[in-house]
TrEMBL record:
InterPro entries associated with the record: UCP010219
UniProt keyword terms in alphabetical order: Membrane, Transmembrane, Transmembrane helix
Residues in coiled coil: none
Transmembrane segments: 56-82, 94-112, 132-153, 169-192, 204-226
Protein name as it appears in the record: DUF3159 domain-containing protein
Pfam families: DUF3159
Species: Microbacterium aurantiacum
Length: 231
């Protein structure tokens, strides 16, 4: 009996990205409009609060009290409450759990160094990794957006033979890389300046306000490449 062929790395990565996009509510096969797709990608009101509240609590408390331990405790505590709420309601805790782990890791580093600005180093790392991944994938001809869309729409990697799709996925991936790079370009100088309030404010303003429009652009571009077939 002939053994099944070993999946290629692009197929495995595409499947992983596609599954992540589907769980986030970004399935181009769905009949949702752009507004609902973006809202689902952000996780609704709960997702927004899980993303914003820990950082907001840290910035506000540290700005007005200069008490690092208190600010970190409330920040990590709010992330823990969100995770516990999801567990109690038997909802997928992945988003809140990821936020809790990130908040706890960043807080541990800030407590170890005694520098409030080090609470943002984890964010720099994730932005650098994500931005680098999008940029490199586009430059080597395997943009991550294309891999995810190809899996979700049952096309695999056949989109690479279509110049229009290949170009669109390239620029979408470059756009995402630019978003992550912009965050670093603005926030890293504030980190070295030690301006915790400005750094935290910049993080909040460059979070969902940049993420949501980029999701909308990506969604619209992919839907334009794969128009719904009449039933």
């Amino acid at each position: 009996m002939t053994p099944p062929p070993t999946p290629r790395a692009s197929e495995v990565l595409g499947a992983a990205l596609g599954d992540a996009a589907r769980r986030a509510g970004l399935d181009p096969n769905s009949t949702e409009d752009t507004r609902h797709a973006v809202w689902n990608a952000m996780g609704g009101w709960r997702g927004i609060l899980e993303s914003v509240l820990p950082s907001l609590a840290f910035v506000v408390l540290f700005t007005f009290t200069q008490n690092l331990v208190l600010a970190l405790a409330i920040s990590v505590g709010s992330a823990a409450v969100f995770t516990l709420a999801r567990l109690l309601q038997k909802q997928p805790p992945s988003a809140a759990l990821g936020g809790l782990i990130a908040a706890a890791a960043a807080a541990a580093l800030a407590l170890w160094t005694g520098r409030a600005e080090d609470n943002f180093l984890w964010g720099f790392l994730t932005n650098g990794v994500y931005g680098g991944a999008f940029a490199v994938s586009a430059l080597v001809g395997w943009p991550l957006i294309g891999l995810a869309a190809g899996f979700l729409l049952g096309e695999g990697t056949a989109w690479r033979q279509d110049r229009r799709k290949r170009r669109t996925f390239f620029w979408l991936s470059i756009g995402w890389a630019a978003l992550f790079a912009a965050r670093l370009l603005v926030q890293v100088p504030l980190y070295f300046a030690g301006d915790v309030t400005a750094l935290g404010t910049a993080k909040l303003l460059m979070g969902i306000p940049l993420f949501a429009p980029m999701v909308a652009v990506t969604w619209l571009a992919v839907r334009a490449l794969y128009p719904a077939q009449p039933k």
